[in-house]
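Sequence in, structure out.
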Amino acid sequence: HKRKRVAGLTFGELTRMEWGAWFGPAFHGEPLMTLESLFEKVNRCPRWLVEIKSSPRDQHNGHTFRLTERVAGMMKSTSQPAITQRMMILSFHPQVLAFAHNLAPELRYVLNLTGKEPIESLNHLPVSPSQLWAVDVNISRLSQAHIQWAQAHQLKLLAYTVNGPRQLKKALTYGVNAIISDRPGWLTQQIKGENRLGSASDPIPNH
């Protein structure tokens, strides 16, 4: 089958596609799950981290910002006041976060960093540090400079993607506030073990 861009298809076209068979025969016919339906099904999730990805083409033609407007609006209308502060929008694109913050300042915003960016460049972003709640740095490039910058701007520090013992040790040594992993079950067990040993690091945000 010819590959198609999701951004170039209508919602009706997307809903008529097969979404489950690639995972296994038992999932044949699984319908497309929308963000709205996901909120309804797991609305007691302790934290929502919704990442908005975009390409230069989608930013240029406005698709990225139309998408951001819909997502921010949906998160505002779906959330209850008690859990609004547990809903976060992440992006590698600071202009996306600045746009979203203007639409929904009550949500929390996290800037993803590859770690290759010069630290001084973080002082000249389209989004102000005051509009952010945290920065999320690639664990392989996480450095003391990132910690100092985050602390200087009173921001939380997150690390991605922590999937192995050496990465976890680095994250805990640096005292990050939260850890993002493709292996949440494994990570939970490892964190419990660290806590039993008296680790002073808490990788999960308290608020």
